[in-house]
Each structure stands twice: as C-alpha cells, then as structure tokens.
Design brief:
By secondary structure, the protein is mainly alpha-helical. It has six helices and three strands, in the order ααβααββαα. The protein has a domain of about 90 residues: Orthogonal Bundle (Arc Repressor Mutant, subunit A). The chain has a three-stranded antiparallel sheet with strand order 1-3-2. α2 crosses α3 and α2 packs across α5.
Amino acid sequence: MTRHVSKEEHIFNLLNGLRNKLSPKFERCTGISSSRFEILHKLDQVEEINQTMLQKAINIDSAAITRHLKQLETEGMVQRRKSAEDNRVTIVHLTDEGRKHIDGYKTEKANFMNQLMQDFNEIEIEQLANYLERMQNNL
C-alpha cells in the first residue's frame, strides 16, 4: 500500500534531496566546500573585514567561521590579526595565494552551475530564481 504524498511534501523532499547532493558534488567539482568558497569570494570583494561581519555576511555560525578561517589560514589563503583599536575584534583579509586560488574556484563554480542548469532556458532560470527567493523570504 502506498501513501499519497502532497505536492508540498514532494517539493520538500526534492529540495532536501537536492541539498544533500549539491554540497558534496560542488566540492568534488570545484575542490573547495561551498562555505569556504563563499568566505574567499566575500574576502575577494573587500580589502579586509571584521570576522563577525564576515560571519554575518555569509550566514554561518561563529564556530564554523572560526574553523573555516583557521583551515584557510593554515593553507595560506587568508590572514587574521587583532584590531589595533579593539583587541576583541579579529580582522581578516585574503592573501595573494588566496587571490590566486579564488579565480580558479570561480571558474570551476561557473562550470558546475552550467552543468547544473543545462537544459534550462533563460525564462525557466529566472522563474526558478524567483520561486526560490520567495521560499527563502517565507523562512
């Protein structure tokens, strides 16, 4: 006996399945996690930024941003320092090594997105973006 699934439940299941596949596939294709990519991408847009502001800009918790930044610092892609004005504030910036890598990651992300969105026309992509934005706003 099969149970009837509502359209809304089916959409939820599809979104959940997509989320579960998206991150590992993105990392395999680009060589970096989506969270670390977002961190590097944001740092590429600014000269330097307060760690708390960076955390809020990419919407992850404080423990996660610290963990990611420590790893990226170990890899030579970012540098952190305490603010001269307030020792409680940590300032983060992208290193030359990080800038070198982010360009390659951006290319790989574009390739990944092209693969993900193949067979979608421009109107469908725009509609999908609108639907997802509305769902995100509803949350």
